[in-house]
Amino acid sequence: MKSCTLRATAESGTLEFVDAPVPEPGPGQLLVKMRAAALNRGEFIIGHGLTKAGTVKPIGMEGAGEVVKAGAGVAGFAAGQRVMGRCAAAFSEYAVMDVREAVAMPERLSFEEAAAVPLTFLVAQDILFSQGRLVAGEWLLVLGVTSGVGVSALQAAKARGAKVIGTSGSAEKLARLASEGLDLAICTRGADFHAQVLEATGGKGVNLVVNAVGGTVFAEAIRSMAFEGRYGQVGYVDGVLEASIDLQALHAKRLTLFGVSNKLRNAEQRASGVPGFVADILPGIAAGRIRPIVDRVFPFAELPAARAHMEANRHVGKIVIAMPASG
Questions:
Q1: Pairing of strands 2-8, 56-58
Q2: What does each C-alpha distance from 320 to 45, 59, 236, 298, 315 come to in angstroms?
Q3: Contacts of 48 (CB under 8 A, 6+ apart)
Q4: Residues 26, 98: Cα–Cα separation, whole Å
Q5: C-alpha to C-alpha distance for 207 and 150, rounded to whole angstroms
Q6: Model pTM score
Q7: pLDDT tens column, 247-296
Q8: What CA–CA distance (Å, rounded) separates 71 from 268?
Q9: Domains of the chain and CATH, by start
Q10: Beta bridge partners of 19
Q11: What pLDDT does residue 77 have?
């Protein structure tokens, strides 16, 4: 089968298309014929923790396709069934998926739309509901709202009945989210949104922050939080991994700070978030109240061009690769 690997050096990562054997599903696994797979920025950043310099590994973290066969001990999935989920080596014609991560695709979704769901919406469920405890009527601030996670958080929060403020450095990208119910769009790449947030929330601040930008906006986010607000860190595209914290604000406003990452979680811990996603978000997707936003679909052979499109920061939502239909 055809597969794509990332050869990482200290300076860069080179994509290479290779021939590889079709994997065999082990106990608790499904062999899936991949029909589409989505890009995730962190996987391409050398030294990020996902990709180490000096390594060569198959790439791809999530996708959708058809079940080919099941490993020992697997029940509930049949050959030919359409599934979506997180899985390693998703940019391959065939990949194995932990059955605990596999979710039956809603009928209304295309493979390309389904490939855009697993990672960002699982993250959204974790940061909004499992840890963020967001409820209807509360205010959410999404820093970097046009990112894949940002768009998913916006959609899931609006489906829950929350009010959402989002920031982005692109007015054009923000305009594309108007139809998703964004209550206040702030066009900025800097830490200068506090006054607009307080004005929108009647001086109270937001109940939950989702920070997909990084350390440059951390202090401003803390300033923008309401009493007993919650703050979730999910990314740092600005490359700033350190920030000072106002301990008096943390103390006086009884703030809660937490991170969302799969980096140090084992397979069981990663799978533990799937039932929450199935309960909190999947019904909205199945009913059409939440529609995954696919910015652009590239054919498998154009994966390097898809990567360049992502790194140019021109996209809103997810970039998806259409895998070969034959094979």
A1: antiparallel
A2: 18, 14, 22, 6, 11
A3: 42
A4: 9
A5: 16
A6: 0.94
A7: 999 999 999 999 999 888 999 999 999 999 999 999 999 999 999 999 99
A8: 17
A9: 2-117+292-322 (3.90.180.10), 121-259 (3.90.180.10)
A10: 2
A11: 95
